[in-house]
Design brief:
Layout: H1 7-29, E1 32-35, E2 38-46, H2 52-57, E3 66-75, E4 85-92, E5 97-101, E6 103-107, E7 110-118, E8 123-132, E9 137-146
Antiparallel strand pairs: 1-2, 2-3, 3-7, 4-5, 4-8, 6-7, 8-9
């Protein structure tokens, strides 16, 4: 009996593993805000935590100086993933602002949004994300300190 695993299913499996790790970390850290009709889960981490194949698939440059911001927007009532437009900025403590460009990723019933943020070692950002689904608009604000690993 031989086992053949396609590159696509390997990447999907890697991404699902990453998503599970991220959501497990979120459950422990409870990085969630209730904004209007949504529960918004968020996490920021170093891009080197992503496998090379997954990074390539989603056009993320792995670097110890690139952070990733991952956000999911869920309906507060039924916890179903919501499609929205996310835009944002990250401002460091010196006031230098960087625009965040979010890419929507859909996998099965899951929808999440990923943005890459270049940083210097031990740089702290105040992150502001505008979430808009066409009928509602909310603003998520949080702070994160990135470390080069």
């Amino acid at each position: 009996m031989s086992l053949v695993i396609s590159k696509r299913s390997l990447m999907a499996g890697s991404l699902m593993l990453l998503a599970n790790l991220l959501f497990s970390a979120m459950a422990v850290a409870e990085q969630k805000e209730t904004l209007g009709k949504w529960d918004v889960h968020y996490i920021a981490f170093n891009s080197t935590f992503i496998t090379p194949d997954v990074a390539k698939h989603y056009s993320i440059v792995r670097s110890k100086y690139n952070g990733v911001i991952n956000i999911s927007v869920l309906n507060k009532a039924d916890q179903k993933a919501q499609s929205a437009v996310l835009t944002g900025t990250a401002r460091n403590l010196l006031g230098v602002s960087k625009s965040l460009t979010f890419k929507e990723v859909s996998e099965g019933d899951a929808i999440y949004y990923i943005a890459v943020l270049p940083f210097s070692d031990q740089e702290t950002f105040r992150i502001t994300v505008n979430i808009n689904d066409g009928t509602d608009q909310q603003v998520l604000k949080f702070q994160h300190k990135f470390y080069a690993e």
